[in-house]
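User: My notes are a mess, but here's the protein and fe (ii) ion's SMILES. Can you give me a structure?
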Amino acid sequence: MSTHNARGVALRAAAVGLGVGGLAFRRFGSRAVLAGAGLGAAAALYGGAVERRWYTLRHDTLPLLRPGAARPLRILHISDLHWIPGQHHRLDFVRGCLDTAPDLIVSCGDSLEHPDAIDPIVALHADLAAVAPVAMVLGSHDYWGPAYRSPIWYFVEQGKKVYGRRLDTPRLLRGLEAGGVLVLDNRRAEVKTGAGLVDIAGLGDPHSRADLPARIDWRPPGDRIVLRLGLVHAPYLRALDVFDHHGFDLALSGHTHGGQIRIPGVGAVVANCDLPLRAARGTSRHGADLWVHVSAGLGHSRYAPIRFACRPEASVLDIVPGAA
Ligand SMILES: [Fe+2]
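Assistant: No problem, the inputs look usable. Here's the predicted complex:
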């Protein structure tokens, strides 16, 4: 989105805030209402014009490395680019993340937000794959374009999906494959990294009921595996249960956008799946022995161009030996 358009979006968001505030003021005649509306308009202006492109790197160290690794394993985890033509700042940020020298790159889907996003997204992932192995799973936005849905429905009817027009996913997949990206929807592979072999299983997106664990051969891996990694776009509990049940060490996901708009001191108010809100961003534990890291993602819905108290992010995860 151009700077001009970004300003336009922010101004529209601020105007909405002011408009609601004005109506409330006429209705209630309260200075408190007017002050609240002003704060809301300022927050919308900031979230639309500043924070949604104020990218950050989240760093975490996880003691999950199995014996035999050559060295600690560094994973760069990106998700939810929701890319629209013009958003070069987002691609530039991701390419800049390569400075962290990852051993493995994981991309957790919802890369597209426009039919013309396919070529730039393919080019970005090919650039990543030139530096380190890239494993990926798709999200619903890689199959369907955006469709307008009032934000209120995220609270009222969380499981409801609204799909836009069908995207050319086969072309996306052909481009990713040609660029050396390993797309692992309902597949499993051993991936060679600088630290050692990583056993990676991916599930299709549970949000659109594309998770088909029965298609995967879940037999135990060989001794040389240094990490067992599960990938799924939307961290529904049934998907995390699958990874936990089969003895995986860590699951990586996106989808939640960390709430996209968080209330300072409270956190996320919506996760858009059945994951507990406290786990909607960052690292948590699930089931018997699974660690989970959920990225708050890099983008936002085309129809909600704002982020507040939830900066767009990529994650750098250093996987180090566990306590003996
Ligand atoms: Fe998303």
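The pocket of fe (ii) ion is lined by residues 80, 82, 110, 139, 141, 255, 257, 297 (CB under 6 Å).
User: Great, I'll file this with my notes.
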